[in-house]
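User: Some background: our group keeps a shared notebook of sequences we're curious about, and every so often someone picks one and asks for a predicted structure to add to the entry. Today it's my turn. The entry only has the sequence so far, pasted here. Could you supply the structure so I can complete it?
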Amino acid sequence: MTKGVAIVTGSSQGLGKAIANRLSRDGFAIVVNDIASKREQIDAVVQEIQVSGGQAKGIAADVTKRAEVQSLVDEATEKLGPLQVMVANAGLAHADSIFELTEEHVQRIHDVNVAGVFNCYVVAGKKMLEQRKGGKIIGATSVAAFRGMAMVSAYTASKWAVRGLTQV
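Assistant: Of course. Here's the predicted structure to add to the notebook entry:
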């Protein structure tokens, strides 16, 4: 018996992996998520959680695409049970001077870090309302959401946006 399902986006490595492992230890069934090209890393985190006694499933999905986030949530709840926690953690940064950032870099950072979080909030929120069991929706950010950082200006702007979206 688990406390419910926790989806952690961008959890094939780094902070997302640590969050997924912690939520597993806290009794949640975990959905390890990242983009399809990170399938091996997704599977490795799933195996790590299972070896430590937790329940986990890996589902590849691109958070920048609302339909893929919907499929992620639908598959997670069909296979594991009610969604209790959504951690919108997927994100990326590009370290460079603002004068060196291309439009493509800025757009990709915005797509993943802002639109991806928005997609997760909307899809998970609707699912939680439909289930009528409550839940928690968390947007991962960083110190960049509170203080400007010169060499990661687009990342900083995206994290300020996540902070604003989360406080709505």
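Suggested note for the entry: The domain at 5-166 is CATH 3.40.50.720 (Rossmann fold). The radius of gyration is 16 Å.
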